Amino acid sequence: MNGILTERFIDAVAFATRLHDVQVRKGSGTPYVAHLLAVASLVLEAGGSEDEVIAALLHDGPEDQGGLTTLEEIRVRFGDGVARIVAECSDTFDARKPAWKRRKLAYLSSLESASPSALLVSCADKLHNARSILADYRIVGEALWTHFKGGREGTLWYYKALVEQYEKRAESPSLSGELNRTVIELETLLAS
Questions:
Q1: Could you read off the pLDDT of 44-72 as tens digits, one per residue?
Q2: Partners of 31 in beta bridges
Q3: pLDDT at position 65
Q4: First-to-last C-alpha distance (Å) of the chain
Q5: What topology does CATH give the domain 7-191?
Q6: How far apart are CA 116 and CA 113, in angstroms?
């Protein structure tokens, strides 16, 4: 990236903030927009394009706030490229989400053919999630797992499987390496 963010980025920050205005993070209760800004920051620091940074801000919009209708609004406001990345980073567009394990297996499988842009945004998303899980676990301990459909074992399995997929594709080695280190740290903490 050339270091220039345009008005589209500013519009995306406002749109993402409004889209998730009442949503909070599992465990910490932090306003959800903090996660979106953190993921965008990771993508930006990894050299992502403006489309990739905007997709990072909007990656959870359709999944959490309106499904395909929200995806279409993203397409209209921010373009096909951003919408395509967001679609690839979503594991469902249904308000009634499919069973957790089935959804996660399908997402892992989709990473095998995901675009480099989607892999970058996805890996940044999962890295920030893993860091948050680790930080929250240090504060609340085992009670944290009540917030996760996969529980302790399922969540750990999923993040280890994500690391395998990202490392297999090797599109974002600095982010996937950091995700791997974070998952190992979480695994070590859980074993102690």
A1: 999 999 999 999 999 998 888 888 999 99
A2: 24
A3: 84
A4: 42
A5: Hypothetical protein af1432 (1.10.3210)
A6: 9
Every domain of the chain and the residues it spans: 7-191
Are 94 and 67 in contact by the 8 Å Cβ rule? The answer is: yes
Tens digits of per-residue pLDDT, 121-144?
A: 999 999 999 999 999 999 999 999
Q: Could you give the CA distance from residue 180 to residue 160 in angstroms, rounded to a whole number?
A: 8
Specify the amino acid at residue 81: G
Q: What is the 3-state secondary structure (H, E, C) of the chain?
A: CCCCCCHHHHHHHHHHHHHCCCCECCCCCCECHHHHHHHHHHHHHCCCCHHHHHHHHHCCHHHHCCHHHHHHHHHHHHCHHHHHHHHHHCCCCCCCCCCHHHHHHHHHHHCCCCCHHHHHHHHHHHHHHHHHHHHHHHHHHHHHHHHCCCHHHHHHHHHHHHHHHHHHHCCCHHHHHHHHHHHHHHHHHHHC
pLDDT given for residue 1 in this prediction: 57
Mean per-residue pLDDT for 26-35? 83
